[in-house]
Amino acid sequence: MDVFGSFALLLAFVCAVYAFVGGIAAIITRHPLLVKSTRQAGMATCGLIFLGTFCLEYLFFTDNFSIAYVVSHSNRDLSTFYKVAALWSGMEGSLLFWSFLLAVYVLSVLITYRNKNGELMPYVGVVMAGVQIFFLTLNNFVESPFKALAVSGATDYFTRADGNGLNPLLQYPEMVIHPPNLYSGYTGFTIPFAFALGALLARYPGEKWIHLTRKWAMIAWMFQSLGILLGAHWAYAVLGWGGYWGWDPVENASLLPWLTGTAFLHSVMMQEKRGMMKVWNVWLVFCTFLLCILGTFITRSGVVNSVHAFAQSNTSSWFVGFIVITLLVCFGAYLKNRDYLKSENQLDSVISRESSFLFNNLLFLVACIAVLSGTLFPVFSEWFTGDRISVGAPFFNKVNIPIGLLILFLTGVGPLLAWRKTSTESLTRNFGRPLLIGLVAGGVAFAFGFRAFYSLMSLILCVFVAATILLEFYRGAKVIRARAGASLPACAIDLTMRNTRRYGGYIIHMGMVFVFIGLAGAAFNRDVQKAMQVGQTMEIGPYTLMLQEVETKPERNYTAQRMLVEVLRDNKPMMMLFPEKRNFITNKENGTMVAIYSTLKEDLYVVFAGIDPETQMPVIHAFLNPLVKWIWFGGVVVVFGTLVALLPNRRSVLVLAGAPQPVQPLPQAVTSSVALREGHD
Amino acid sequence: MKKQAKFGVGIGVILVALGFLAWLGYGESKTYYHTIAELQTLNSSQRSQRMRVGGTVAQGSIRHFSGRVDFVLEGEGKALPVSYGGSDPLPDTFVDKSQALVEGHLGSDGRFVAEHVQAKCASKYEAAPGGDTKGAAAGSTQPSSM
User: CB A241 to CB B88 under 8 A?
Assistant: First the structure.
């Protein structure tokens, strides 16, 4: 099976090269048969990558420990669930997984547009094949996952007859879904990139490529968002340090393309509506793609010292080479065809939709540059000064918290500003009440002792933004109700379905508001640590924790040392929590299982921190983290909103249903529908 | 022209303010990487900087005291005694012969006072791609969530 798998990958490489070279020939000769055969070569590449990936999974499932990658990432007793995840638990497998996910996207694009956009698709195909060639080169010749144990270069593996086992940190359900999501985001941005570069090279007329890629960019963005949040949740639930974001290089790497991708999803509207920012958009897509490659590189190469980083590998030069070549190609294409990207309009007013997009993009870009420079600071400082200097969380927080709050402000303001110029009267109408509600909420919170400056600002802005969004839904729904007479919630749903893009966008914004509420809670985190004997108690916030029992429990794959902690509130027993440490039998590694009692108000987060070596008493570390649940909830809302925005618009069904009555648009309905048109789409 | 000037001022104010904050944060958190051998060659002002030092935990050197843990880091044939007094528990991967990264200051007696300890297991080809080490890397002394 390993020979079969590596052969499939080799053939995939050959097909990708054909799709690339043949594609260029097809563009030059415009021979229809050549166009068709290169497209089929592209599809074959994807099929062969699927085959190679399934071979590796098959080797995991059959416990084939003659393969270096299998023996070092799995063991006989590992459950099926984690044998799937073992695929992406190391360098070679995750690079193959990259190819696999990219192949899913490429195949979907090739099939979706097989009979459409004949002028553009050969260019897109060539770009996609180029990216595939790079990853297949790594899969075949640099980091092959099918290396047998005896092969030189695999001697570093510490071998056991039944396998070395999967890293205990990865043996957690979220670890099975977090990497696929994040990787789907990373790989997904290849498609907008291929369309942008293809359209630029082809001088494809109009804004069609923007329309074509919007859907793909949103899918990639959704996976990226989900991947980042799942990663944060995994860190929170598994690492046991009480937080979810540590500005670790790998976390930062996943945030970078998300920032530029989010900027892109907003600034495309400028191009669609006003024909502006064309150069900017093309470069945003290019940068997003390059940051995805950089992110993969940072994660996989250990170029920056990170707790995530894998051992230094020989892939670094390949990645740097690919990034440089891509940058040169992008720059060349831009210089050659830059006249094609001329802007059709100019900015008219500081208070307009355009300028809100401009500032939105500026802020996302500054955040991206700050995170990027902070992450790569050790590398660059070593080049320029010889000293390897790193910057920590204070740097990232100082810059990004104000940026985050400014963006949050724009989230509320931007969508309600009119294109070109907004009148003072419409400003008062749209923002008067929400601003008042926000300030009142802030005042109440302040009175209740909510004093941290950024958190208070965040709260005021969150309430303000939420109010503007709800007001928008209410106004729109009221117009429909006036005509159709259905209930307000039904009208709100109908409204959303009529303009999914705009109202889906609002739902996403609402999700981000929830995320910000959760982030604001971090200013009020508390923690207590205590060595305890059975029967002793500790206090944290309103809770009393009592250690009831310490038990050692052998499981199939590990031995668990479990603390039975009873939680009391006002001297009344509430529940039991079971924080534990797991000692994995095969590789003698330890894993921590955090026990979390989560409510919308706060999380009670209890960790068994180990045995105090002096007193031999177990140490319990308890955290009280307010509002954390809102972050995960916000993530769910963001994904839901993205799915809504991906739906096609529905015709106004409710109006048709109410057709028997003569439809008389009311005067206020007319003014409101003017307000409607000011929106996203 | 006036319109563009308005935008220029707006953008300028934002960039200058953020640049200033970045500079503050940089000053607060910059940390120098050094190898154990390099420590002896540093001048007095360099010795007072916040730094990060990596090495291998010497066999049998980990000793627990109340409120602190002492151990010896080895690298390039040199040894560095370290005291860790942080509140976070040491990571699960911190054992004899593991590779460790300590962050803190060099004491006047040549002993390194660590605030954070990260460790990765040496017995495996790869380091943990997450690391309990994060407990040490970004633990309670640096509230680092956004």
Answer: yes
Determine the residue of chain A that is closest to B38 in CA distance: A387
Shortest Cα–Cα distance, B44 to chain A (Å):
16
Note whether B24 and B72 are same-domain residues: no
Of A307, A389, A621, the CB nearest to B118: A307
**Residue of A123 and B2 predicted with greater confidence:** A123
In a domain, A586, yes or no: yes
Q: Are A366 and B14 inside 8 Å of each other by CB?
A: yes
Choose one of A151, A167, A193: the last residue of a domain: A151
Domain count, chain B: 2
Tokens of A601: 């108000």
Torsion angle of C-alpha atoms A394, A398, A404, A409, degrees rounded to 10: 150
Query: Under an 8 A CB cutoff, do B18 and A235 touch?
Result: no
- Amino acid, res. A184: S
Inter-chain CB proximity A391 and B26 less than 8 Å: yes
Report, as an integer, the average pLDDT of A289-302. 86
CB-closest option in B33, B89, B127 to A390: B33
Mark which of A88, A118, A151 sits at the end of a domain: A151
Both B56 and B117 in one domain: the answer is: yes
Identify whether residues B67 and B79 lie together within a single domain: yes
Examine the domain organization and report whether B82 and B26 are in the same domain.
Answer: no
Which among A245, A310, A525 has the least Cβ separation from residue B146?
A245
Nearest neighbour of A392 by CB, restricted to B31, B125, B135 = B31
Torsion of CA A679, B4, B8, B14, to 10 degrees: -10
Strand-strand pairing, A543-554 and A558-569: antiparallel
* Mean pLDDT within A43-69: 92
pLDDT bin (cut points 50, 70, 90) of residue A191 is: very high
In this structure, the answer to whether residues B18 and B82 fall within a common structural domain is no
Beta carbons of A522 and B146 less than 8 Å apart: yes
- Using a CB-CB cut-off of 8 Å, the residues of chain B touching A347 are 3-4, 7
From CA A616, how far away is CA A47, in angstroms rounded?
57
Provide the β-strand partners of residue A538: A545
Q: How far is B50 from chain A (nearest CA, A)?
A: 10
Is A451 domain-assigned? Answer: no
Q: Do residues B42 and B83 touch, judged by C-beta distance below 8 A? A: no
| ipTM of the complex, rounded to two decimals | 0.74
How high does pLDDT run on average in chain A? 85
Query: Which residues of chain B fall short of a pLDDT of 70?
Result: 1, 87, 89, 120-146
Query: Domain range for residue A593?
Result: 524-629
Cα angle value B101/A298/A140 (rounded, 5°): 120
Determine, for residues B144 and A246 on separate chains, whether the beta-carbon distance falls below 8 Å: yes
CATH number of the structural domain spanning residue A600? 2.60.98
Determine whether the interchain pair A394/B14 forms a contact, defined as Cβ–Cβ distance below 8 Å. Answer: no
List pLDDT tens digits, range A198-217: 999 988 877 788 888 889 99
Query: Is the domain of B10 the same as that of B42?
Result: no
Q: Which two tokens stand for residue A209?
A: 């490529």
| Least confident window among A279-293, A472-486, A531-545, A656-670 | A656-670
Q: What residues does A453 pair with on adjacent strands?
A: none
Number of separate domains in chain A: 2
- pLDDT at A177 exceeding the cut of 70: yes
Q: How confident is the model at residue A587 (pLDDT cuts 50, 70, 90)?
A: low
Asked if the structure places residue A54 within a domain, the reply is yes
pLDDT score, position B1: 54
Instruction: Note whether B24 and B71 are same-domain residues.
Output: no
Which residue has 């990497």 as its token pair?
A179
Q: Is the pLDDT of residue A631 over 90?
A: yes
Identify the pLDDT of residue A161: 62
* Interface contact B18-A347, CB threshold 8 A: no
